[in-house]
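Subject: for your reference before the review

Hello V.,

The reviewers asked for a structural picture of the protein, and I figured it would be easier to keep everything in one thread rather than splitting it across files. Below is the amino acid sequence we used in the manuscript, unchanged from the supplementary table.
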Amino acid sequence: MTAAATLHRLEEAGVEIVVQGDQLRLRGQKPADDLLAEARTRKVEIIQLLAERDARDTAAERAAIQEEPPAPQPAPEPRRLIDGLLSAGLQRPPSWPDPAARPAPGAWCGCCGRFDPRQGGRWWRDLRNEWDGGAPGWCCATCHPPDHLAPDQYETVRS
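And here is what came back from the structure prediction:
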């Protein structure tokens, strides 16, 4: 039987093998007498096999430890975050009833302009004051164009 086969049979039998200098210490289950005799005969080779295994395992562990960790993701630029918040604050609905709430510069329609909010939008309001409940509010000129009104019946604003 080879030293590798002896070592394998010892481990299968539940024997813990510890090397202390040039000695083999067997712990746990007592192996069969023939296996114990073979281990004594092949002691030097078994110690060498265990040393090689330990060196191989240590090298693999060292390589795993020394592997480059994944690079941390950079934090988002504060300017991008601020731009996003400002852009979201300028979003308006396609229409709203308050004529005093004039579209702010850069205001964009949440219905049709959501894909390019930096361009702002074009808004209009009816000047005829024929709506129920008072003066009409503002509408997006893209979503709700004032095609039904004459040019002098509505006011237009570009934001």
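For the response letter, the relevant points are probably these. The mean pLDDT is 82. The longest helix spans residues 43-66.

Happy to draft the paragraph if you're swamped.

O.
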